[in-house]
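Supplementary Methods S3. Complex input for the zinc ion-bound model.
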Amino acid sequence: MISSTAAPYGYRYDPKSSLLVIDEEEAKVVRLVFYLYAQERLSLIKLVDRLNRLSIPKPSNGRRWHISFVAGMLGNETYTGTLWQNRWHREMVVDKPGQRPKRRIYERPKEEQISTAVPAIIPEETFNVVRRRLAENKRWAGRNTKREYLLSGLLKHACGSAMGARTSHGTPYYYCLKSNHFKAPIDERGEPQPCPGTWVSGRAVEAAVWDTVTGLLRHPDLLLQELERLTQPDSTTREALEEELTQVRKRLEKLPKEERRLVEGYRKGLYADFMMREEMDRVRSEQTSAEERRRELERQLAHLDKALSYQGQVEALAERLTQGLGAMDFQQRRELLRLLVDEAVYNDGQVTIKTVIPFGSSADEVQLRPVPQGGQGDGRKGFSTPC
Ligand SMILES: [Zn+2]
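Predicted complex, serialized as structure tokens:
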């Protein structure tokens, strides 16, 4: 006895015989779906996309094909010739007293289910291939519940904080970590001061960084030339930087002594008030600029080290570049950015990209790229915590 509502997509319930019969039109689609998944190895997303683009009428008057429906179809044993009835158990459960009851559905043990033979649409072997692939994907999804983002660890907000990434309603976003109420710095009154930075569309900012960096790579010769110059044993760049850094550090050591001498001399009445103030200001401003210069030199040297340590990879990369950037998968793209980008700073619709290797005449070329505003990803002010 088959329930008249038991017919899955691909079958019709025949009231005369009380049996399921194949609906030829729908069965064709079922075969196509299994074929695309098992043989062409399309992902579920691409498979659904293909069905929608082919304008195959969706069952039960829906407007579009959906992943959940197609996934259910691929896992439905009925297509191999066995219809399982009494399969699902539904009940209303109350988790906590006072809460609204929730509907729970679980599969009954096989021995409680009732099997009925129906005409098969899909051969057992194909079904098993599909089942293995679905199980594989599920394992994979479980391992990678944390989505990976192209700019993770590379993107900073103008306020100095790193930017995190997450997906909301299927759209990726980057957001300042300090915009999160719980991670925001605390002011003297103990109040969290979240960064008012808005969320930025992941696609826009990723495209801006990717296009800029790959734009620089349009001449891989230039990249290799630069690298060669940097790694030449007779390269004077490094020596010059190191020499200057030594001088700056020495100067920085001397400045506090100068300050002490000034204070000492003032106490002994050697200087007038105004002279003392002037001299102090001079020492302090020299200190500030020397510290700045030291940081800058250290940064440039760190760049050089990074460039050197990446040399082997960059050569491999250059080889890969000849095969075209379009052929790179996500991991390779991320590797490439990691290799070449020191950091990318997002500031109010613009992203500044600092590359590891100088791509121009200046030592550290800065690329400015506007990130398109508008659309879903921008202007979501008022989000102090990611939803
Ligand atoms: Zn911020």
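Residues 273-309 form the longest helix (37 residues). The longest strand covers residues 341-347.
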